[in-house]
Write a structure and sequence with these properties.
heterodimer, A: 111 residues, mainly beta, seven-stranded mixed sheet, 0% helix, B: 115 residues, four-stranded antiparallel sheet, 10 strands, disordered N terminus
């Protein structure tokens, strides 16, 4: 799984609830990313981080938050402000501006 | 980004034939391109990449061609096998984006291999 661990594999959320998706990497890479994928579509960048304690908004950051307190961990919180959270969420890592390697993904469903 | 709904472009190929998957990009500043393969319910898997100082790169059974003049990228798969059935995405970025690669993904092409 590209040196990336994502958990849980499936996550269910009630409306108005915040949920946090885990992403861990064990290859000491600086850059990590979160993407959202809707059915039949490509990936859209939510947030990315180049180094510890630093992160930048991607194209669809509204309704999401992240932290990067440790190099190996980049959790994503889907807040209640995100109106359409049901999607497949993918975490990735890279060495600088090179190919990104993806984790297995978390499928989030709103009940 | 634009929505194309659930109907991905689909390419049907007979086992053993060659496959060609095409991708158009719009950003003239993009100088690094990647092809990914995604099987159902899994994360994308890196296949091959190419930088803008090249127009062709070959891997194992795969070749990527880059035409910067018309902003077109293609992935050729030789002797297509049933295990090649998946959705294929191209992605682009500029090398001048700091220390992280902000990839822009295409909408994908579904490859169906028939026996």
């Amino acid at each position: 799984d590209g040196g990336i661990t994502q958990s849980p594999k499936y996550l269910f959320r009630k409306e108005g609830q915040n949920v946090t998706l885990s992403c861990e990497q064990n290859l000491n890479h600086d850059a990590m990313y979160w993407y959202r994928q809707d059915p039949g579509q490509g990936l859209r960048l939510i947030y990315y981080s180049q180094i510890v304690n630093d992160f930048q908004k991607g194209d669809i950051a509204e309704g999401y938050s992240v932290s990067r307190e440790k190099k190996e961990s980049f959790p994503l919180t889907v807040t209640s402000a995100q109106k359409n959270p049901t999607a497949f969420f993918l975490c990735a890592r890279s060495i600088g501006v090179n190919e990104q390697f993806f984790g297995p993904g978390t499928r989030l469903t709103v009940l | 980004g634009e929505s194309v709904g659930l109907h991905l472009p689909t390419l049907s190929v007979q086992e053993g034939d060659n496959s060609i998957i095409n991708c158009a990009y719009s950003n003239s500043a993009s100088d690094y391109f990647i092809w990914y393969k995604q099987e159902s319910g899994k994360g994308p898997q890196f296949i091959i990449d190419i930088r803008s100082n090249m127009d062709k790169r070959q891997g194992q059974r795969v070749t990527v061609l880059l035409n910067k003049t018309v902003k077109h990228l293609s992935l050729q798969i030789a002797a297509t096998q049933p295990g090649d059935s998946a959705v294929y995405f191209c992605a682009e970025t500029s090398m001048n984006t700091g220390t992280a690669s902000k990839l822009t993904f295409g909408t994908g092409t579904r490859l169906q291999v028939t026996l």
